[in-house]
Amino acid sequence: MRVKRWLQGIFWVLVYVLLAAAPLLILLIGPVPPGRDFWREFSVALGFGGLAMMALQFVLTARFKIIKSPYGADVVYHFHRQISLVAAVMILAHPLILFIRYPALLSLLNIFQAPWRARAGVTSIVALVVLIGSSLWRKRFNLEYTNWRILHGFASALAVILAMVHVVLAAHYVNTPVKQVLWISYGVFWVGLLIWIRILKPMMLLRNPYEVVEVKGERGSAWTLVLRPVGRKGMIFCPGQFAWITAGKSVFGESEHPFSFSSSASDTGKLAFTIKELGDFTATIKNFPPGMRVYLDGPYGSFSIDRHAHASGFVFIAGGIGITPMMSMLRTMRDRGDKRPVTLIYANNGWETVTFREEIAELEQALNLNVVYVLLDPPDGWEGETGFVTADLLDRYLPEDRDRDVQEIFICGPGPMMDAIESTLPTLGVHMDDFHSERFELV
Fold first, then answer.
1. For residue 229, which of 294, 275, 298 has the smallest C-alpha distance?
2. 59 and 193 in contact (C-beta within 8 Å)?
3. Are strands 313-319 and 407-412 parallel, antiparallel or unpaired?
4. Sheet holding 342-348, edge to edge
5. Strands of 293-300's sheet in order across
6. Which residues touch 67 (CB under 8 Å, ≥6 apart)?
7. CATH number assigned to the domain with residue range 309-437, chosen from the 4 options 3.40.50.80, 3.40.1440.10, 3.90.180.10, 3.40.50.20
8. 3-state secondary structure at position 333
9. Least confident of 99-103, 134-138, 172-176
10. Alpha-carbon distance 17 to 366, whole Å?
11. Burial 349-364 (b: 16+ CB within 10 A, else e)
């Protein structure tokens, strides 16, 4: 199974490289406009390459399971963020090189007198700057998540469409049938993706609604949202995966949010998501009435014990509400009668905020489970671990057998905690293939 995922991963990387490089390869076909020096051609090549990479971003965020399966959703979104910066630098370098090499071209910045090809290009650059800036500094600008998604979608579509208009109006590199077919194909492909994302997929969700059964309060300012399918069987998922939830608003909008399943994968008749009250949407969960319609897009993610059937045991390292996917895996192991050993290292601020504390005690009796609580602010008389999840603590509780493909480690919690643990595990003899993280900071 692991070899198959590696081969799938390599295949999709090669497909991405080919599609990103295709415009540059096509430039070499047919006649080249005369009188153009190296720097002009180099800047054009950067622009074409950056444009192709920006267009491919729509593919990365379209949630095609076949593409994300080898890597996991968080890895794909991380690549999406990083490659966006590379593409933006390439696109911005295109006009900067021209302005430095040919200062007279600065007059094209006057959109009131410049030709339409320049107006389209300049406006596309402005949209790109807004796109990147609002993503990098969303929290600094206090942009609410749903509003950011609307701005992000509009700015990205505007940037790509106007860049295409610029290419067509400039007309230097669409002067052969092959090149024209390439750009027409790219355009049709992008339009098709938008139709799939904005129309077809939401229509599919409308045909498969869920309804609220109950909302249960949990420790740590969290709420468990219990759903059941309406008129059909429930969603089949792997323990540890997540889904995008749309509740109370149109599925054609931007009001969906990703949350991990907290219920057992063995019971698809009722699905549960445990959600901490942290923002505008999560603060409304407790008010969802029974019978309210909810729509799910999923399941997604590779953060699951089911992808590691070879493992002789597991280590779960959770911080705060990061316990949610771990609970799905623990509950599933209980229902399956899975007796493989599990060590749960669970970090929290205080004892009273430990979500699922009582049920975890019950799971200790039903499973081969060893629980290690780590409290930052322990109560009087606490004899357990305190402070942070350090290298010394991990070394004491990780299994002694740390050979590759023996123990699988799953990490979910606050970003700084995950960063520290991910950098520490290799120093403790854990192979990078043997630990897995789930992050929901997708912006």
1. 294
2. yes
3. parallel
4. 385-386, 369-375, 342-348, 313-319, 407-412, 435-437
5. 256-260, 242-247, 293-300, 210-218, 222-229, 271-276
6. 12, 59, 60, 76
7. 3.40.50.80
8. helix
9. 172-176
10. 49
11. eeeebbbbbeebeebe
Dump pLDDT digits (tens) for 114-133.
899 899 999 999 999 998 98
Question: Which residues are within 8 A (CB) of 95 and not within 5 positions of it... i.e. 6 or more apart?
Answer: 43, 121, 125
Tell me the pLDDT of the chain averaged across its residues. Answer: 86
CB half-sphere exposure, 328, CA atoms < 13 A:
30
Q: Which DSSP string do the residues of 289-307 spell out, in sequence order?
A: PTT-EEEEEEEE-S-SGGG
In 107-133, which positions are buried (b, 16+ CB within 10 angstroms) versus exposed (e)? ebeeeeebeebbbbbbbbbebbebbbe
How far apart CA 146 and CA 163 sit, in angstroms, is 26
440 has pLDDT over 80:
no
Please give the C-alpha separations between residue 299 and each of 52, 125, 234, 237, 260, in angstroms, as whole numbers: 29, 36, 11, 6, 9
Contacts of 211 (CB under 8 A, 6+ apart): 227, 228, 230, 290, 291, 292, 293, 294
Identify which of 348, 340, 339, 344 has the alpha carbon closest to the alpha carbon of residue 315: 344
d(CA 56, CA 53): 5
Between CA 332 and CA 322 the distance in angstroms is: 17
DSSP state letter for 111? T
- What's 210-300's CATH class? mainly beta
Residue holding tokens 């406006």? 123
- Structure token pair of residue 228: 């059941």
pLDDT of residue 443: 47
CA distances from 199 to 124, 137, 145, 264, 299 (A): 25, 30, 21, 32, 20
d(C-alpha 442, C-alpha 258), whole Å? 9
Answer positive or negative: Cα dihedral of 192, 195, 198, 201: negative
DSSP β-ladder status, 256-260 and 242-247: antiparallel
The enclosing H or E element of 259 equals strand 256-260
**Average pLDDT value for residue range 37-57:** 85
